[in-house]
Each structure stands twice: as C-alpha cells, then as structure tokens.
Specification:
Oligomer: single chain
Number of strands: 10
Strand content: 15-25%
Number of helices: 13
Amino acid sequence: MGSAIDITQSSELLQITRNAVIESRHYGVAVVLDPAGEVLEALGDPEALIFPRSALKPFQAIGSLRAGAVLETAQLALACASHLGTEQHQLLARSMLDSVELGEEHLQCPSSWPGDSATRSAMAARGQRQNKLAFNCSGKHAAFLAASVASGESVDTYLSAEHPVQLSAYRAMEEFCGPISFLGVDGCGAPAPQMSLKSLAEGFRKLATSAEPAARSVSSAMREHPWAVRGTGSPNTIVIESTGIIAKLGAEGVLGMSAPNGVSVAIKILDGASRGIDVLALQLLATHGVLSPQKLEELTSALMPAGSTAGTRAAGVSYVGRDFDAR
C-alpha cells in the first residue's frame, strides 16, 4: 500500500468566508490535463495517492460490459451512479436484476434510506424500511450481477477481488487510469483501488475521448441519462445535462470531470469535504477554455445559489489556491 495523501502534498483550494472574513479552509490536490494527457495545471502534488472511491464507477461499468452484462442505456448510466435512491432510481436498479432473473436479496451492498429526502419521507410514511435498491451503489452492484449471470460465474462471490467480473473491472481501471498501487475494500463492499490523482484525471480524459465500444457506451449513457448518475438538481446531473461534461463524484471529497474534447480535471479534498468542489472543478476547466465565462457564471449560480436570508448571504466561498494571497 502506498503512502496516503497528506498535507505536505496539498495546496489550499477553497476558503469559506463569513462577512468576507475567512472562516474555514480546505486543502487538497487538483490537476488539469489537456487532450493529450499533459498537465496543464497542478495545485498540490498530482502524484499523491488517493482512493477515488465512486469516481471509478464508470470504469467498473466498462468492466461489467466487457464481462458480458447486457444493459439498456439508462441501466448503464445507473451502473455509473452514486444515485439519490429516488423511486425512479430504485425501479431502474430492480429492472437490472429482473433482466437476469435475480432479486434484491442477491445484492451485497448495504441497505439504506434514499439520499433523496422526499423519497425517504414517502417511504417512511408508507411504513417501508431501508432497502438495498435505495443504496447509492445499487446500480453498480446490479451491473456486476448481470455480468456474473451473463458469463456463467457465481453470483454469491461477485464482490471478491478474484471474481472474473472484478478482474474485468480491475483491468479496465488499469487500462484507462494507469497503475493501481493497492486494492482495498469500498464502503459498499466492492474492491477499492488506490491510485494517483493524476491517474484518475487520465481515466476521465480517456473515457471522454475513447473510441473503444464499452467506453463509448458508458460516456454516451451518462450524457443521455444524467438524472440516473446522481439525481435531478444535483451537481453531477446539472453539469452533465448542461454541458456534456462527464462528472462523477467520489466519497471523501473526490471529483473527476472531463469535457468532450478530453480536457479533464480531478480533485481530492484532504479533509473529505465536498462543498464547493464542483464549482472549483468548473473554474479550473473554464481557465483552460472548456467553458465560456457566461456558462461558468450560469453553472455557478445553479450550483451555489445566492442566499435568501441575511445569514446565508453573509457566507461565501473563494476558489482555487493560485488566487489566494501568499502566506
């Protein structure tokens, strides 16, 4: 296992202000790659090792397709998702299991309440309990199961790192991202690779530009069904549907984005916070010509709406460490 990212590799990326006074600071690493994979900008050490967590789901979905999973485009988008567990998300995950004659009981992810508050309240009002379909990784797990059935492999051990479907996912992650330094276990029970932040950015660059059939299917599915990737009104979904930029969050302050031309950005916030990270990524992409100032302003307003009370108007965020005063 490689050394984990630490403060010596990090740069100050975000400042949270109140009444124009700095109240909190977030440190981390950000890297931007050009369409050829060269570093356009780095804040902190882009070789810092991280667990990309759910930001790797598009590459795991490629592995599932290569292992034989047959998925409709919306189902494939859900395989890439960290979804909010709405009724629509749950029904889509169930359809993936139905297609291979499996049920919710075959999922080995945890049970949970939906991340979507309205769905959570509706389920509670109906007397329903937490379930596995509502868990944000259920689409990825359903895709693993679909691939296992299609390839004639065990559905009982589909999360084992030695399972053929997981080996297919591992090969896809290395093919697109590069070397994996360590393989741990994710919060959902699936394998969790460790790699450099630059490797994650490289993966997103290749995902956006690859002509390989499985990769094209994944990127097209995410763009065609952005609601499935997270949920209506959420940052990843807003960015994808508004720009065509592939955007995928990961737990503990990780984010990857790539424009259709291959300019990509990857970010890891050292303390695991995610506030402001989406606008930070968009500002970095805009700096390198991916977004117009007008589009950036539009997206910033959508992702960080102006406060409606005196207290919320007093709060603010400053982005991108290169613009901060020297200390």
